[in-house]
Amino acid sequence: MPSPHRPHPPHPPRRPRRPRLRKIALPARPALPSWLPLDGFILGLIGTVALAVLLPVSGRAATITDGATTVAVAFLFFLYGARLSTREALDGVRHWRLHLTVLVCTFVIFPALGLAARGLVPYVLTHPLYTGLLFLCLVPSTVQSSIAFTSIARGNVAAAICAGSFSSLLGVVVTPVLVALLLGGSGGGFSADSMIKIGLQLLAPFLAGQLLRRWIGGFISRHRAVLRLVDRGSVLLVVYAAFSEGMVRGIWHQVTPARLAILLGVEAVLLTVMLTLTSYGSRKLGFVREDRITIVFAGSKKSLAAGLPMASVLFGAQASLAVLPLMLFHQMQLMVCAVLARRFAARAPEGAGAAGTAGTGAGNRSSVARADADSADSADDAALTRV
Question: How far apart are CA 195 and CA 18, in angstroms?
Fold first, then answer.
């Protein structure tokens, strides 16, 4: 008996589905900032110096400016203490070889090169300019720009944060002591007055910021942009007071354009030597590529934001000439390291930077990663040589 149900018509042949292309999340590269001959802060410093030259303060106005500068310096170091995470610094102790290398570069090799430059006085550098050059060699490493350049170059960002924190923490104490030991009368020596000023204006506010960080750390993080403006405004006030006093005392008549050009040349040699030592020295010590990048940028740079307030406390009326070499070196290091960071990033092996934040050392890389890093090493050296 035939089935009452009619057979279904055959379905049309299905078209083969195209395989879906999976979206692969590429590792995020830090945005490269637009490289300018001068950054905004340096332009502000130049404008402040010009204002001090044209409109220096004297008499009662100078007394008020000095008082405001004292408060600004104390507030600056209070902010430094509140910003620096002691926990992050302690967490980085396991990378002690890297941090010790950066500290040796900052507080041993740099001062040794500064002392070696003593032979340039008086034929190449005047004694006041040499004092500023040696002070430049004694200040701690910078934090923000070292982290930024390390990130751009795909280095070990976590180590850069810890290295900068260590340098800033130690610099509050080590830099004044080195100034007293190496500069003697030029920096105030070990007199009771200078030690009291260092304790009250630098160390006490810094420790207060560290102690209050638990309660005000969140506020500082939320208002970082506003506080950064206050930070930089305080530094500009310190520069204005120092250069204004220098104009009133006639200190600037000691500096000629030819001396400034020679000073720039000496600082270019100093930066070149430190970049070369940190690059080749970190390789000889067996650091991986990411850690070497951190050492190059953290070990060859100096902090303008920390050095300027220290100079106002340590040098007093001579602070204007003492900070001039530091200001010039700061701009030079920004320009050179911006180019160098881009070249490091362009020659980075695949996946570089991701593993660098997890640890340091030379023993945990696969053979393929080791080959890629070794091939990039020669390219890094070539980039450094060209810079």
Answer: 77
Q: What does DSSP assign to residue 353?
A: T
What's the DSSP call for residue 27? P
Q: Provide the greatest CA pair distance for the chain.
A: 124
Strand residues in 307-375 grouped as ranges (E): none
Cβ contact 349:373 at 8 Å = yes
Cβ–Cβ < 8 Å for 134, 108: no
Give per-residue burial for 41-56: e unless 16+ CB within 10 Å, then b: bbebbeebbeebeeeb
36 sits in the region (left: phi over 0; alpha: psi -120 to 50; else beta) called beta
Enter the tokens of residue 199.
Answer: 């304790």
- What are the CA-CA distances from residue 185 to residues 86, 190, 199, 322 (Å)? 34, 9, 19, 13
The CB density around residue 369, as the number of other CB atoms within 10 Å, is 17
Give, for all 387 residues of the chain, the pLDDT tens digit.
555 555 555 555 565 555 454 443 433 444 444 444 556 777 888 888 889 888 888 888 888 988 888 888 888 888 878 877 766 666 666 788 999 999 999 999 999 999 999 999 888 998 889 999 999 999 999 877 888 889 888 888 888 888 887 888 888 889 988 988 888 755 544 455 666 777 777 788 888 988 898 888 888 888 888 788 887 888 888 888 888 877 887 766 777 888 889 999 999 999 999 999 999 999 999 999 999 999 999 999 998 888 888 888 888 767 778 888 998 898 899 889 888 988 898 887 765 554 444 444 444 444 334 444 444 555 555 555 555
- For residues 321 and 255, the answer to whether their CB atoms sit within 8 Å is yes
Contact 180, 379 (CB under 8 A): no
140 neighbors 167 (Cβ within 8 angstroms): yes
